[in-house]
């Protein structure tokens, strides 16, 4: 068995925002077509700093880094903008009104708010000591510059234009050292404001910590290469924060917004923007007060009986996680006011931990984000979004995160649109009036009607199968059939006759009917509630007044359509003016969703959700189908949590014949009710995904659910085009939507699945079928001009995630602050940093005698297999020898594998040749760069093989883009980075690793022990976990 060590890669991840500097290179991060592309690398957590942790999911992020050498930054003539910031400790109240403003109830009388805000014997309540940045007029720090109330505990807005220099004078009035570290600007080492062992001389380390009573001046610039590009908005959203221990500093309150603008946007040396009427900065974050430096002080000051507090108690920890917007919860954020017709710029960012997956939904308006129409923004830790809005509907509107857990925990605020005197956007409606008759109907829904797992033919209730816990009926298990509510279409307002679904609509499953309209149309939806609970219909993507919103919150109004009682009806009127329709960069039809929102969490968990399509004028034919599209499919990826359904108690009584109180105590009951479904079907039971070779297919993808609903929707066998970019997957989160186009050229039966590991294992996978139908216009024929051959072997090695701990030990100085020991120590029944793994390695030829050395520049690949590459129009032959001790294979994304289904398995000692074709649809789309990144991995058991180490990079480029050695002509360097929580608990080699790398008696180790399981989740960025 050989010994391998990861090799170094420049530590540049914390540059943020997708662009950074590293060792004389200017680098851009390009997300691939794989799950979670677009997640940043800076995630606050009590684990290795700057490590991404999505523990419950596969967490796969694949980046192609394009790097070119840089010269000194070019600073065009600008102004010097001077800021005087002081760090102060304050008592911060997350709910200063003492009320759940959204529910119009006091905290004491609202159970959801009280869980976080009510002080008690062992509860802190709503007020916490924090540190915040404050702005002053000059170096005396005597006159504070007031900031708008909506900024909350965020620091003041720092603004600059391209060419400007920022001088930030920081004075620390707090009781511990802090700094200020920016994103999105250029700085020398002496103005970085980030403490870590960077080998800098001492005269460049003064910025690393400003001690209590001390001060320091930071100098930042905005050179041309940091400017917003032609495709960007006029101003880019960034942040600044303290960075001695970034997770704890930020949780303590030290963060603020930073804006960099194109030249001429700011008025002279003032802070006013000339291009908008008003701009707002909002941070969506589950502020974890358990990480704050002041936790002990907060317990002592605000808990009634501090001695009774157990800081490790899960309920206590949960009560300190404040689901806040700018530090306010449950509608307490003040002063978000604007006029109808105003040009409004929203600067949105997320910070926090792995649960900080946010979908910010602006009720009653739509947004323009980088030329695309939407009404939601997806936010993750250290992601920054600039969204433009011209509000047109007066009223007080909800702004909320649509993740179920976050809705319940109070991550919502109100913004007010006033009529004023400004002319609102015209809403000329010259199109059709489209009428729909939709009822909420109670049904018995079967998540697996065939009783079989379609890919294997096994029974869903088979003992030991992944499906068993969801489908086997038993004393404390409901099985796969549940009472649910479903939107059903009727022929007219009498609601006597259901409208029969066509064959093309069979795939909709639990989804309601597709509501379609074009720009200029009016939509009238008559809703009849045939269910036994109050329900409604709330849409995305259309214009409506308060009377037709379909949701109640305390906005000063009370409308019938907010809640339609059982056996009552209501007609909603929605319109489609031009300013809500698709933009020039959008597809002809935008995918949206409607759902019931009387109780947004329980209603959608009960099944009330459907697709909505808004199209350009002239896109729909007389039959309401898209012109030029042969097949339309609508897919909802969601973990339906039946524990949150209105019908949970009814399901317990109906199927288990018992009272709900007894069964809810069973440990596995809740998990058995979380149904990992696509359109309400699991394990291949979704019908009707049939098409012909060469069909023009539009896929309309929806997300719904809670923090676990981070989906990488993968389409096996064929590729997609989304917004002009080539992909084979789409990222979906709660209340996000995507439109993708496919022209299949590969016939057979293929999977559509969620790449998130536990979602895939637990049934979120279906099948689509491409048939050769003898059409006159099949997919374009393929001609190939060259063949490239690679020789790969799977080999078992001992992999060390952290062969050199000197950096980490210097950073944390053997203190309790070190986050690494739980992952890297092999004491107390843990395994440490060394694990047996399988890796792909390249050989010179088919004898597999001579390994091929990695060329200069590829050292950073670490555990990854070799970089494979091809141009469009070529064939790749991959000759694979399995030198490992168990069966493996090689399967690639993006390319055409002529044989449908799983690739041929290579048993130990076997040699198998895989042929991958690279047609035009495998290469870059019109809006891609010269090359697109894909991956290859073993697919005998996709989850366990990948966690065991078998994964590598593949790039496909336009014709003529590559030199003879495979390097690109248009860049100097390329880097491939895999961001993955390697879950060694799911490796094939776990038991061997326990036997070889644990100290003491390995038989005493419990593989299910919580600390042991956590210690084996290695938060990896290609090379190391330190």
UniProtKB/TrEMBL annotation:
In short, the EC number is: 1.11.1.27, 1.11.1.9, 1.16.3.1, 1.16.3.4
Where does the record place it? Secreted
Q: What pairs make up the disulfide bonds?
A: 235-261, 339-420, 589-615, 692-773
Does Oxidoreductase count among this protein's keywords? yes
Highest taxon, organism lineage: Eukaryota
Q: What is its main location?
A: secreted
Cofactor(s), by name:
Cu(2+)
Q: What does this protein do?
A: Multifunctional blue, copper-binding (6-7 atoms per molecule) glycoprotein. It has ferroxidase activity oxidizing Fe(2+) to Fe(3+) without releasing radical oxygen species. It is involved in iron transport across the cell membrane. Copper ions provide a large number of enzymatic activites. Oxidizes highly toxic ferrous ions to the ferric state for further incorporation onto apo-transferrins, catalyzes Cu(+) oxidation and promotes the oxidation of biogenic amines such as norepinephrin and serotonin.
So what family is this one in? Answer: Belongs to the multicopper oxidase family.
Q: What is this protein called?
A: Ceruloplasmin
């Amino acid at each position: 068995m050989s010994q391998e060590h990861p090799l170094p890669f420049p530590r540049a991840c914390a540059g943020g925002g997708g662009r950074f500097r590293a060792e004389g290179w200017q680098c851009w991060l390009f997300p691939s077509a794989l799950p979670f592309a677009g997640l940043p690398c800076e995630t606050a957590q009590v684990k290795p700093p700057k490590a991404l942790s999505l523990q419950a999911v596969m967490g796969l992020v694949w980046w192609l880094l394009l790097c070119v050498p840089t010269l000194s930054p070019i600073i065009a003539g600008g102004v010097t903008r001077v800021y005087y910031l002081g760090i102060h400790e304050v008592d911060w109240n997350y709910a200063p009104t003492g009320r759940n403003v959204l529910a119009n109830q006091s905290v004491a009388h609202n159970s959801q708010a009280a869980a976080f805000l009510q002080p008690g014997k062992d509860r802190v309540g709503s007020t916490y000591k924090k540190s915040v940045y404050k702005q002053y007029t000059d170096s005396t720090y005597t006159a504070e510059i007031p900031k708008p109330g909506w900024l909350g505990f965020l620091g003041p807005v720092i603004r600059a234009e391209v060419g400007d220099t920022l001088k930030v004078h920081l004075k620390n009035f707090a009781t511990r050292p802090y700094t200020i570290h920016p994103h999105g600007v250029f700085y020398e080492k002496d103005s970085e404001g980030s403490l870590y062992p960077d080998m800098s001389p001492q005269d460049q380390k003064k910025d690393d910590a400003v001690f209590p009573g001390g001060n320091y001046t930071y100098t930042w610039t905005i050179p041309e290469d940091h400017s917003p590009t032609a495709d960007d908005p006029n101003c880019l959203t960034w942040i600044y924060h303290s960075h001695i221990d970034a997770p704890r500093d930020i949780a303590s309150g030290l963060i603020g917004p930073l804006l960099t603008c194109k030249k001429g946007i700011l008025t002279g040396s003032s802070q006013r923007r000339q291009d908008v009427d008003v701009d707002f900065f909002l941070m969506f974050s589950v502020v974890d007060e358990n990480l704050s430096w002041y936790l002990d002080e907060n317990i002592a000051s605000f808990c009634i009986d501090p001695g009774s507090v157990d800081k490790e108690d899960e309920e206590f920890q949960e009560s300190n996680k404040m689901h806040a917007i700018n530090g306010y919860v449950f509608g307490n954020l003040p002063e978000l006011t604007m006029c109808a017709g105003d040009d409004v710029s929203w600067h949105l960012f997320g910070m926090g931990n792995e649960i900080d997956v946010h979908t910010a939904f602006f009720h009653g308006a739509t947004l323009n984000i980088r030329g695309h129409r939407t009404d939601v923004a997806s936010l993750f830790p250290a992601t920054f979004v600039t969204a433009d809005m011209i509000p047109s509907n007066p009223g007080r509107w909800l702004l909320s995160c649509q993740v179920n857990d976050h809705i319940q925990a109070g991550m919502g605020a109100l913004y007010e649109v006033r009529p004023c005197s400004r002319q609102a956007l015209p809403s000329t409606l010259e199109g059709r009036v489209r009428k729909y008759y939709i009822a909420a109907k109670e049904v018995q829904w079967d998540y697996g009607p065939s009783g079989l797992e379609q890919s294997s033919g096994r029974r869903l209730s088979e003992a030991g199968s992944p499906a068993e816990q969801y489908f086997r009926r038993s004393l404390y298990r409901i099985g796969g059939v549940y009472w649910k509510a479903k939107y059903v279409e009727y022929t007219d307002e009498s609601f006597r006759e259901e409208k029969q679904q066509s064959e093309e609509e069979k795939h909709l499953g639990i989804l309601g009917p597709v509501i379609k309209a074009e720009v200029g149309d009016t939509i009238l939806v008559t809703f009849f509630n045939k269910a036994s609970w109050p329900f409604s219909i709330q849409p995305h993507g259309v214009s409506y007044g308060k009377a037709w919103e379909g949701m109640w919150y305390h906005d000063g109004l009370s409308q019938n359509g907010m809640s339609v009682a059982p056996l009552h009806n209501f007609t909603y009127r929605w319109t489609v003016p031009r300013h809500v329709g698709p933009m020039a960069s959008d597809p002809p039809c935008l995918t949206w969703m409607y759902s019931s929102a009387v109780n947004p969490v329980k209603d959608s968990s009960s099944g009330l959700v459907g697709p909505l399509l808004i199209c350009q004028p002239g896109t729909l034919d007389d039959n309401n189908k898209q012109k030029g599209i042969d097949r339309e499919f609508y897919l909802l990826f969601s973990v339906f949590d039946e524990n949150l359904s209105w019908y949970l108690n009814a399901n317990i009584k109906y199927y288990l014949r018992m009272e709900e109180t007894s069964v809810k105590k069973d440990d596995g009951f809740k998990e058995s009710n979380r149904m990992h479904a696509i359109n309400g079907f699991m394990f291949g039971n979704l019908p009707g995904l049939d098409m012909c070779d060469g069909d023009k297919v539009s896929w309309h993808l929806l997300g719904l659910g809670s923090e676990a609903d981070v989906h990488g929707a993968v389409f096996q066998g064929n590729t997609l085009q989304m917004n002009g970019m080539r992909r084979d997957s789409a990222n979906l989160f709660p209340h996000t939507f995507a439109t993708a186009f496919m022209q299949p050229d590969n016939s057979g039966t293929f999977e559509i699945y969620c790449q998130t590991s536990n979602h895939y294992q637990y049934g979120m996978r279906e099948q689509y079928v491409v048939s050769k139908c003898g059409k006159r216009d099949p997919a374009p024929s393929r001609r190939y001009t060259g063949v490239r051959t690679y020789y790969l072997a799977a080999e078992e090695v001992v992999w060390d995630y952290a062969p050199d701990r000197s950096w980490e030990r210097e950073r944390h100085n053997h203190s309790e602050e070190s986050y690494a020991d739980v992952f890297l120590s092999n004491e107390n029944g843990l395994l440490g940093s060394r694990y047996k793994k399988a890796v792909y390695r390249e050989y010179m030829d088919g004898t597999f005698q001579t390994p091929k050395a990695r060329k200069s520049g590829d050292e950073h690949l670490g555990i990854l297999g070799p970089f494979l590459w091809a141009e469009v129009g070529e064939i790749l032959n991959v000759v694979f020898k399995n030198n490992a001790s168990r069966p493996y294979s090689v399967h690639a994304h993006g390319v055409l594998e002529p044989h449908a289904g799983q690739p041929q398995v290579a048993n130990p000692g076997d040699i198998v040749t895989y042929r991958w074709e690279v047609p035009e649809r495998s290469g870059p789309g019109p809006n891609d760069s010269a090359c697109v990144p894909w991956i290859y991995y073993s697919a005998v058991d996709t989850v366990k093989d990948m966690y065991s180490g078998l994964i590598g990079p593949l790039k496909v480029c336009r014709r003529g883009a590559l030199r003879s050695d495979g390097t690109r002509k248009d860049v100097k360097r390329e880097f491939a980075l895999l961001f993955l929580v390697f879950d060694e608990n799911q490796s094939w080699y776990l038991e061997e690793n326990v036997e070889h790398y644990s100290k003491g008696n390995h038989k005493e180790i419990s593989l299910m022990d919580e600390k042991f399981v956590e210690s084996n989740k290695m938060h990896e960025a290609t090379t190391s976990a330190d």
